[in-house]
From TrEMBL:
Binds to 23S rRNA. Keywords: Chloroplast, Plastid, Ribonucleoprotein, Ribosomal protein, RNA-binding, rRNA-binding. HAMAP family: Ribosomal_uL23_B (MF_01369_B). It is found in: Plastid, Chloroplast. It comes from Abelia forrestii. This is Large ribosomal subunit protein uL23cz/uL23cy.
Length: 93
């Protein structure tokens, strides 16, 4: 499934990692249940909550013509304690 585009690394998303919350951009047409099912199936984790918001596209000018980039949706996925998504795991020493 190509619903999840990529992980987001901002100051807020890095802060949310300590609360076991992961942030990623997803396709704007994807539903919460599709994303939840895909994350649980692919990463083998349990999702307890999902928050989403739609981010508007940015204006782009090409000569006299004003256009706009495609809008997208950002999801904040909260996992049950004890679960984590592998690329974000802390190194064990």
């Amino acid at each position: 499934m190509d619903g999840i585009k990529y992980a987001v690394f901002t100051d807020k998303s890095i802060r949310l990692l300590s609360k076991n919350q992961y942030t990623s951009n997803v396709e704007s047409g994807s539903t919460r249940t599709e994303i939840k099912h895909w994350v649980e199936l692919f990463f083998g984790v349990k999702v307890i909550a999902m928050n989403s918001h739609r981010l508007p596209g940015k204006g782009k000018r090409i000569g006299p013509i004003m256009g706009q980039t495609v809008h997208y949706r950002r999801m904040i996925i909260t996992l049950q304690p004890g679960y984590s998504i592998p690329p974000f795991r802390k190194k064990r020493t």
